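[job 4471] stage=fold_predict status=RUNNING
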Amino acid sequence: MFHFRVHRTPYRLRMAALPLALLGASHAAAQSLSVVEELRLSEGVAGFSGSLADGDGFGASLASLGDLNGDGVDDWAVGAPLTDGNGQDRGAIWILFMRADGTVDSARSIGDGLGGLGLTLADGDRFGHALASLPDLNGDGRRELCVSVIGTSFGGTAWPGGSATSLGASLPALFEPSGCVWHAGLQQLVVVSDDGRVVLVETDGSVQQTFLVGGDLEAVAVPDETLPVAYLGVEHPDTVIELNLNTGLPTGESWDLTPWMQGANSRGLESLTVVQGLVYAGLQESGEIFVFDLQPGSLVQFMGIIPPPGGRDELSGLHYEASTDILYAIYDPDDLVLELTPSGSALRAYFLPGSSQEGVALIPGCPGPMATFVVAEDNGDLNTYATYPAPCDGSRQLWGRGGVDVLFLAPDGSVASETWIASGSGGFGASLDAGDFFGSALASLGDRDGDGLQELAVGAAHDDDSSSSPFSQRGAVYLLSLTGSGQVSAWTKISATSGGFGGTLNDGDGFGASLTSAGDVDGDGNSDLVVGTPYSDSGGGQTGSLWTCFLDATGVVMGQAELRGVDIGAQAGEALGAALAQAAGDWTGGRPGVLVGSPTGGDSSAGAIRVLALAGDGSVSESHLIDGANGGFSGPLAAGDGLGFGLAAVGDTDGDGMSELVAGAPGDDGAGDGRGAAWALELKRDSLGVGFCYADGTCPCGNAGTGAAGCANSAGTGGAIFPSGSASITADDLMLSVSGLPPSKFGLIFMGDATIPALPMADGMRCVGGSLFRFGARLSDGSGVLTEGPGIVGWTWNNLGSAGHILAGDTWSFQCWYRDPKGPCGTGSNASSALAITFVL
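[job 4471] inference complete, writing structure tokens
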């Protein structure tokens, strides 16, 4: 059974616990954000009465549905993509009808033959891999739910190749096969052993030739079926030798691979195959596949590394079959055979019990649909399976393309209707390749261009755009405009070669592995998109990074900013950006922001969440870490729980003025091995001052704002003042930020030693009185944020008379006046909310 504790979907997330290091002056005054309430949801806990099975991975994806059943409380969707259903890893989602206290009132499942789902699921589909909630498409007053189906399995289903025929009795005495390959030109199997022997074997098992080459031979491949040669993979040192199969003698060509691949503890080069002219060499220790271009004269060009599919190590055999365009891999300790794309994306997995399975080959049956599958066992046996499905029409390559099912839900959580979106379906005309994983991530972008149609962002993290390499997995994102029926009316692709994206993507980055809207980051009036590239090596090996894509109304990227994981404290292997969600404004001081998941990072490698506030240029103005040892979260968590694998901001469910998030922990074992859990967390910025002067019915022209903001302005919001840093006059690190302003407009913060009843002030209200002092004029940035500080205390001493000096024990109130030429009341300016702070030594 696939287990989130070991194998991560579909990327290996090797992340380590790391104290958060906030780098740069813009981070130095960050105010703390902490968990003030937490609740674990799982089978039999917090009112959830659903039945889960071991390995279901409940919590792998999350979405808020709004109030689906009309009881006044927003409801949630939770993915369990490894639910078996009527097969293996077909997937399911749970609709949770919530109570205001965060517990579950009732629940229902949608999946294989359940909940009214019309989509036919197959083994390995992983329905529920990603979720996104869309505003009402069809006018029924309910939000729609988008569910991805990536069509792949890492767990393993029943072996389809029939029973084995053993050829071991025909092999030479004490011959222990460690690798094998079918040579179509010679119509023979080439089999090697780790004692240095090579034999040529007919399909009936009869041995035609035996050669003694020497060395620890662990693998064999055929570079050209028109020539009587083979490549022999030697372990210790990791080397490839070319052998003439007519003479049994080396040709003199050999290639040293040790500068790039070496395995500790006698676990080095263990498998070898040739894919479209390139040599794939498997490293047993890590499961990684090293790709080389071997040239005459012992010249080696290193091309790159394919990460271990599903995170598996102990790779013992590889074979690429051109007739099916499938890369076959065998993993001896797991008794598992994987079918992969040439780029390493897993399409299927099968259980094949055996003993010391160390080599794999395929004898095609073209034009028929069946092939003979051959497995070399390092115990003296060679097994053939004559009914392995391997049609030569390319149909095996349909898997892993992915798709999205748009569900129109009834009030009881069942599926009233649905629209399937995939290559050639649902109005989507893009051509997807096997293993693109269309649906790696989903995010709602709203109606960006004002045409009345909702936009959906869909990640395809293994898309090979922009590279001729067969293993690039650079990734892509599709922006889909959806009609009221969920059909695609238009689409745009964003990749290294499409959609205006000008950033540099490298092989294996996985652009599109996670997605979220971050709101209008740069203040141009258009919401922007944050995209995760969890395997980016920017700043260090697989630290991961985030790309903020500044979009115009049509979805074209007008600019982009990369946030490297190393810049916010991520270390090599952490893969920052495995999950993303939009952050609530009360967590980020009113700035646009994102939640970032690190499912195998954090304390005890149990998972972690970062809350990032973004400046107008896409850089980080605040960063907060939440894990088992930081941010006030008590858990408990255990290694492998995967906190942050799924993320969703769900609003203020209990009406106490503080927003909540839900974080999935699909590896949680509390209810059973890998059944999973979801944590509801209420977050609060540490109290620093008391806010007041919020917009209400007293605004001058009825321009009431919302939340902790002043009267509404031309930006459609109101100015909201937030503090960060501390009230210490010694530290003097207080920073005041005013968000929600019109971009690029002058304003200034003023302070007074008294509060007064609200008085009209231009388009807003003034609530600060007594002795008044003003700071210098500032210009709001592109996202409508104006800041003052740090150094506020020192400024008053250097620039004001003694009446304006801030002392320990003083309480001062702060407010912002700002220009707004197009404001609703026509006065040309407005005022923010206010904030009273009592200073300490």
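[job 4471] summary: The chain has a mean pLDDT of 88.
[job 4471] exit 0
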